[in-house]
Amino acid sequence: MEYKELKDAACRRVDELKPLIYEIADALHDHPELGQHEVFAAKKLKDVLKNHGFAIDNPVADAFPTAFHASYGHGPFQMGFLAEYDALPEIGHGCGHNLIAAMSVGAALAFAKTAGDKATVHVYGCPAEETVGSKVYMSEHGIFDHLEAAVIVHPGTDKTYIGGTSYATHPLQFTFLGKAAHVADATYHGVNALDALVDFYGRLKEYEKTLTERHIIGTIITEGGTAPNIIPDKAVMKATIRALTVEYLEGKMLPEIKKIARDVADAHGAKVEMVHYEPLYKNMINDPKMDVYFADAFNQLYEEFGVRDDDYAEGSTDVGNVSQVTRVSQPEICIGYDIAAHTKEFAQAAGSDLGKIQALTGAKAMAMVALDVMGEKY
User: Fold this and answer.
1) Which domain-ending residue is among 245, 275, 305?
2) Residue 130 sits in a domain of what CATH number?
3) CB–CB of 280/288 below 8 Å?
4) If you compute the radius of gyration of the chain from its CA atoms, what whole number of angstroms results?
5) Using CA atoms, how far apart are residues 61 and 55, in angstroms rounded to an integer?
6) Does residue 206 share a domain with residue 158?
7) Residues 36 and 129 in one domain
8) Does residue 267 share a domain with residue 295?
9) How many other C-beta atoms can be found within 10 angstroms of the C-beta atom of residue 229?
10) Are residues 245 and 263 located together in one domain of the fold?
11) Which domain holds residue 21?
12) Cα 244 to Cα 255: distance, rounded to the nearest angstrom
């Protein structure tokens, strides 16, 4: 068949899979699970894929028991579909990962049906995107290196969008350590860890004014002492430190910020410990050609969309790490209006009729784009 006919066949297959795609979306929405605890979701998706002839394994089982890899076929073209399925505390699927799982599985099944013997289809179950980011670990261990491309569609609001990027981020915790003493002790004055931390906070704000590239530094003090009449011997700050590129973040910002912290600690006679409490999420690189394929697909599906500038970024995602090792495109598909992600309202949209209808559109678009990328070589 010609590729237009293959695309039409893939879309028909998604329509045939509508009950299954809806079932996945509803089941995960009704059973939200936090990152690294997605037992129900992982089993549900693996059972579906196994029932459709996919072989199942988990190459990162030691680190992420609720991850999985499903493969189908033995063709030369290696195509990846990324599934996320973790939820948010107290909110549920406030980022729509139930729809991501449904879309990616539906798209993979449709692509497998239409690609024939030209492709090997890979579905990756990727836990804990909201926290420790399994795709970070998977990327570091070469899980995606053999892929020629990977796709994922993320739920969004107000309008469907293609393009843009994401912030590279490497959260950092600073613990300043001093010596406790009673504030009225005339002979033993201690070392005030909170003073050191407050000094560091001020210097961090001044440092931020010197940065010449877009960035984010968000901070909270999580520990500053136990009683006002006791000089604090421990003070703790958590910081989310972000830049538009991993090179600016890791090569400039973090080394300079760590030096400021050490200098402040020395000046106060204190010590400072620094630890990255979450892994490095690299910036997203949306493949330009795949973005064009998504634009063509959305046009054919009558889905209105906008195109974001290359430097447009709102948040961070571990899909960025995948995009550093293979071609990736991650559009956002509209599932509601006048709502924000990570809210109960967004979670309601992720379980709505509109959300599921849009999941069908997203699955069709991913399958069509996979066929376009395959068509470049085979």
Assistant:
1) 275
2) 3.40.630.10
3) no
4) 24
5) 16
6) no
7) yes
8) no
9) 9
10) yes
11) 3-166+282-375
12) 16
Comparing CA positions, the residue from 103, 105, 130, 98 lying closest to residue 32 is 98
d(CA 376, CA 359) in angstroms, rounded, equals 26
Helices 97-115, 353-375: axis angle to 10 degrees equals 40
Looking at the fold, whether 70 and 157 belong to one and the same domain comes out as yes
Q: What is the spatial order of strands in the sheet that 68-72 belongs to? A: 55-57, 68-72, 119-126, 77-84, 149-151, 328-329
Whether residues 39 and 161 share a domain: the answer is yes
Helices (H) and strands (E) counted in the chain, each on its own, are 12, 17
Q: What is the pLDDT along the chain (378 residues), one digit of tens a residue?
A: 577 899 999 999 999 999 999 999 999 999 999 999 999 999 999 999 999 999 999 999 999 999 999 999 999 999 999 999 999 999 999 999 999 999 999 999 999 999 999 999 999 999 999 999 999 999 999 999 999 999 999 999 999 999 999 999 999 999 999 999 999 988 878 999 999 999 999 999 999 999 999 999 999 999 999 999 999 999 999 999 999 999 999 999 999 999 999 999 999 999 999 999 999 999 999 999 999 999 999 999 999 999 999 999 989 999 999 999 999 999 999 999 999 999 999 999 999 999 999 999 999 999 999 999 999 988
Residue 187, domain CATH = 3.30.70.360
Looking at the structure, do residues 79 and 198 belong to the same domain, yes or no?
no
**Up-side HSE of residue 321: CA atoms within 13 Å toward CB?**
23
Q: Three-state SS across 287-324?
A: CHHHHHHHHHHHHHCCCCEEEECCCCCCCCCCHHHHHC
* Contacts of 8 by beta carbon, 8 Å cutoff, 6+ apart: none
